[in-house]
Specification:
about 300 residues; about 65% strand; mainly beta
């Protein structure tokens, strides 16, 4: 199975993914996955009447995961693998003493472990996957001249995924994703306010959807995503406290090729930053395309 995917979160921000899966024998299989698990693209427009004018932050990531899966029984699968994660970042916060920071690009390693239970007769599957935290010691330049180091640890997370047939040609699916954001912080040595980014609480995101096969070549799906707010003060570089989204999409299958396209509209939760500025009425539109080829 070969898959390629690209998803645009905004007109100027996109993520790319690629996956390859193959069997070694009747019970053992492997996969290689490339994705971009973390990203920040924050920009406050130039405005002489705004304290935040010119504030921006960027963080990019690339990740390659190698996975080995074993069918312990016809219904139980266990899997695990290694992850190589690359990140880099920069930010400018003019209203905090003209602060700037640039990091180099670092690659470090983590792992993932999981297990799944399935009942093929009713298209049922329940899987739990754990992703370890990965620590990066970044070489940084602050204020354009000060060379030092900043630790960035991308957080551990757990995904619980399920699906089940509920009627002929109809499938219900869902995802619960927990991310340990309360252990995440970026505290450069010379940032005047001490901590550039941190979170008081963890975040859990819930997705529930239904898929329907209409013909041998066409299928559709609809889903709802909900992330409850934590009612806490958030960083100026990421002032979103929870979200609610709806998504619609369709899949077209011809021979060995499967093409899926979808669109998602999200209402972003209201938030407040340490300067007591209120952020509200935010929204986001995402468009995604995935192409799969089976051979």
């Amino acid at each position: 199975l070969l898959m390629f995917a690209i998803a645009a979160r905004r007109m100027d921000y996109s993520t790319l993914g690629f996956a390859y899966k193959a069997d070694l024998n009747d019970r053992l299989s492997y996969a290689f996955i490339f994705d971009q698990p973390w990203g920040v693209d924050t920009l406050y427009p130039d405005d002489p009447f705004s304290i935040y004018s010119g504030t921006d932050a960027n963080l990019f990531s690339n990740q390659i995961t190698g996975i080995l899966a074993y069918d312990a029984t016809p219904r139980v699968k266990v899997y695990g693998g290694l992850r190589a994660e690359q990140i880099g970042a920069d930010a400018a916060i003019p209203f905090v003493a003209g602060y700037t920071i640039d990091t180099d690009t670092q690659t470090n390693f983590g792992y993932m472990l999981g297990a799944a239970y399935q009942i093929p007769e009713i298209a049922f599957r329940l899987g739990v996957t754990y992703y370890s935290a990965i620590s990066h010691d970044m070489n940084t330049t602050e204020f354009g001249t000060i060379e030092d180091q900043t630790e960035i640890e991308t957080p551990q997370s757990v995904n619980i995924e399920f699906q089940s047939g509920v009627a002929e040609d109809t499938l219900v699916y869902g995802l619960i994703r927990w991310v340990d954001w309360s252990e995440f912080a970026i505290s450069p040595p010379n940032y005047p306010l001490g901590t550039l980014v941190d979170y008081d609480k963890d975040w859990t995101t819930y997705t529930l959807g239904v898929g329907r096969l209409f013909t041998d070549t066409w299928a559709g799906f609809a889903q709802v995503t909900y992330e409850p707010g934590n009612d806490t003060v958030l960083t100026t570089l990421g002032p979103v406290d929870g979200r609610t989204g709806i998504g619609l999409g369709a899949t077209y299958t011809v021979d060995n090729v499967k093409v899926t396209a979808g669109v998602n509209y999200t209402w972003l939760g209201e938030a407040k930053n340490p300067l007591d500025t209120q952020f509200e009425d935010g929204n986001a539109v995402g468009v995604g395309v995935r192409v799969g080829y089976t051979f």
